[in-house]
Amino acid sequence: RYGIRVTSIEPGAVATELPQAIADEEYIAASRFSATPLTAEMVAEAVVYAVTAPAGATVHEVLLMPTDQAQ
Predict the structure, then answer these.
(1) Per-residue burial over 36-68, b = 16 or more CB atoms within 10 Å of its CB, e = otherwise
(2) What is the pLDDT of residues 19-61, one digit of tens each?
(3) CA 42 – CA 57 distance, rounded (Å)
(4) First to last CA, the chain
(5) What is the distance of C-alpha 25 from the center of its chain?
(6) Cα separation, 36 vs 38, whole angstroms
(7) How confident is the model at residue 71 (pLDDT cuts 50, 70, 90)?
(8) Contact predicate 13/37, CB 8 Å
(9) Contacts of 11 (CB under 8 A, 6+ apart)
(10) How many CB atoms lie within 10 A of CB 1?
C-alpha cells in the first residue's frame, strides 16, 4: 500500500570481535563450537540481495548459516 518493504536478516555464527571482549573463561568454554563463522562480507551480500529485489517483490526473511553450523 505504501511501498514499504521489511526484511529480516537472520545470520548464524558470524566472525566478530566479541569473543575477544569476553573475560568469563567458563562462558567462553561453554560457547565454543566448531563451525566456520560467516564473514561480514557474506552477511552484506545477503543484505544487498534483499534490498535489490525487484520493485514488485519483497524478501521477507533471509536465514543465513555457515554450512557446517548445526541447526
Answers:
(1) ebbeeeebeebeeebeeeeeeeebeeeebebee
(2) 778 888 887 777 777 788 999 999 999 999 999 999 889 999 9
(3) 22
(4) 36
(5) 25
(6) 7
(7) low
(8) yes
(9) 38, 43, 46, 64, 65
(10) 3
Taking Cα atoms as reference points, which of 44, 37, 46, 47 lies closest to residue 16? 37
| Amino acid residing at 68 | D
Cell (9 digits) for 53: 529485489
Q: What is the SS3 assignment for 38?
A: strand
User: Where are the extended beta strands (E) located within 1-71?
Assistant: 8-11, 61-64
Q: In this predicted model, which residue has the larger pLDDT, 17 or 66? A: 66
